[in-house]
Amino acid sequence: MVRPDGSGTFRWHGYELPSPMVNRLILHVGDCKTGTTSIQAALRAAEAESAAPSLFYGARVNHNFLVDPLLDPIDACSADQVFADAARTLAGAKAEVAVISAEMAEFVDPEVLANYLERYLAQWLPGLTVIAYVRPHGARLLSGYAENIKKGDYIGSLPDFLGHLTRRGDLFYAPRFGKWRAVFGDRFILRPFSSADLTAGCVVRDFFNTAFDAPDLRGVPQRENEGLCLEDLAMLRHIHKNWRARTGGKKVPGADAFGWNIPSLLTARPRQQRTALALDVKLAERIATTFSDDAARTDEAFFKGAPLVSAFEQMQKTALPVAQSIEAEHHLSADEIRCLDIFAEVCFRQIEQDAGGFARAMRDLRPCA
After folding, report:
1. Is 228 helix (H, G, I), strand (E, B) or coil?
2. Which residue segment(s) compose the domain that 242 sits in?
3. pLDDT tens, position by position, for the chain (369 residues)?
4. Among residues 76, 109, 122, 173, which is most buried (max CB within 10 A)?
5. 299-326 in b/e burial notation, b at 16+ Cβ within 10 A?
6. Helices 281-302 and 307-318 sit at what angle, rounded to 10 degrees?
7. 68: domain CATH number?
8. Is residue 193 part of a domain?
9. Distance between CA atoms of residues 146 and 270, nearest Å
10. Does 96 lie in the same domain as 27?
């Protein structure tokens, strides 16, 4: 790709395309569970209503499809294709600012991503801003656990999930975000995901303020992808465990669509008694011991205050004396569990016959009026 030649066109892989109107590219790279779904809903609304400066978003939900191939080293051809498509799309966009929002970029090597940006989107890199949000360690553990439970990605205990994330390195922020800064320099902006540090306590307003210097939106869409209560998480976990027992421990096709869409029905008809998922004292101490140094290093490198370090004090103040149980038997009656097992069996038979049809049906779920 080369710069425009003065004729109002630029050359891309042998093709002449009109010089793009987009002069700023904003890349929103997560983290997961930092209000990304709400930000994406607001971006779609802003694109439709021109609530931001001539904004192009151009995705029905998000742009994870752009980075998903980068997570699979054998899928380089797909990566080339989606980035080539993105270049063509940006070239035809009639807006000053374009936003790419892909929270799954959290798991991508920033050097790999930068390489594809240079190869395919170099035209827009002079105006590039990369924005990420980071959630305090304890809160991220809870939100990540709930997300994995509802989609059936993980069915173990919360302490075991902490061990899983620790081994994988997800919660060691300083080296991870340090690499993003090393690759993108001052173009990389990290924001703390805590209400006290967000613009008006709202991540959507904070994102628009950071990206467009426009914190006062006329209308902010309602929050999306709200967290489920402990009782509903126990119920969904029981269903996923039932399915895995039928497949030798494997996650069933359609589990993601089920876990993503069923919560909209649950939150539309909330339980009379709801218990928030929470840490216990022992687990909070384990988190503080493991990640206090990482929090201090991240605060020092990226923030004026100490939002991550100060979060540990609040985490330990609100920790429960006794650990919660995620077992359905501790929250539901025997009759309710019987109904869940019947429901799980009916769904499993549908998955066996037509997994694609089951997933489509889940994606089409809407709360009844």
Report:
1. coil
2. 230-275+333-363
3. 233 333 344 444 444 444 548 999 999 999 999 999 999 999 998 888 755 558 999 999 999 999 999 997 666 679 999 999 999 999 999 889 999 999 999 999 999 999 999 999 999 999 999 999 999 999 999 999 999 999 999 999 999 999 999 999 999 999 999 999 999 999 999 999 999 999 989 999 999 999 988 765 555 555 555 689 999 999 999 999 999 999 999 999 999 999 999 988 998 888 988 999 999 999 999 999 999 999 999 999 999 989 999 999 999 999 999 999 999 999 999 999 999 999 999 999 999 999 999 999 998 887 655
4. 173
5. beebbeeebbbbbbeebeeebeeebbeb
6. 170
7. 3.40.50.300
8. yes
9. 17
10. yes
Q: CA 298 to CA 178: how far, in whole Å?
A: 8
What's phi and psi for 367, nearest 5 deg?
-60, 140
Q: Are residues 133 and 234 in the same domain?
A: no
Beta strands in the chain (DSSP E): 9-12, 15-18, 24-28, 55-56, 97-101, 128-134, 188-192
